[in-house]
Design brief:
alpha/beta; 196 residues; 3 helices
Length: 196
């Protein structure tokens, strides 16, 4: 309105969380300066708060996701857990809110949904005594159970590396994912070296 020109070529933009996009942050010459009408005015405009896209965090751990979010100036929000048949590997991220690629203001939070693996099912504990340790591990894998501990003891009348005992007992009702303790016969040479 004063008849001054705007130097559009020299107009700059910078992030500013306090001013909306397109608002003037400052200008040259400064306010209240006397200038010639021919002198162009240069503006520095706000491009709004700095924004970052949500990274792709699916199939990663919560720790990995938190690190990637922090690099982009975003924060970890609420972490929820659910059983998932589609995502059998436990402790991996299966969804984020907002989704990957969404532009957020620095400091915003991203919420994660993490798989606990398939829902546990009740089953009968298989009989493992008399099997080799390798056979017992295979049987437990098929039954969705885990070897928690392997204890060794020497029973001279039994073959080496054979399961002598198990806990929980065969036939007892357990949930999938339960840890099993096996007692395995060790070789005579191993028993002697341990005793010495």
């Amino acid at each position: 309105d004063l008849g001054l020109n705007i130097n559009f070529a020299a107009t700059e933009s910078r992030n500013d969380p306090s001013q909306p996009r397109g608002h003037v942050l400052s200008h040259v010459p400064a306010p209240m300066q006397t200038v010639k009408r021919t002198r162009p005015v240069r503006f520095i405009l706000s491009s709004g708060p700095e924004r970052s896209p949500v990274p792709q965090v699916l199939n990663k751990t919560v720790g990995q996701a938190e690190f990637e979010l922090s690099i982009l100036g975003l924060r970890l929000g609420m972490v929820s857990y659910t059983h998932s048949e589609r995502h059998a590997t436990p402790q991996i991220i299966i969804a984020s809110t907002p989704a990957a690629g969404t532009e957020l203001t620095r400091g915003d939070r991203v919420h994660l949904l993490v798989s606990l693996g398939p829902r546990p099912v009740e089953l009968a504990m298989p009989r493992l005594t008399g099997l080799t340790l390798a056979q017992a591990r295979t049987a437990l894998d098929k039954a969705l159970l885990d070897v928690q501990t392997v204890a060794r003891k020497r029973e001279p009348r039994e073959e080496p590396d054979v399961v002598l005992g198990q806990e929980p007992k065969a036939g007892s009702r357990v949930m999938s994912g339960t840890g099993v303790t096996l007692t395995v016969n060790e070789e005579a040479a191993a028993a002697r070296s341990r005793t010495v």
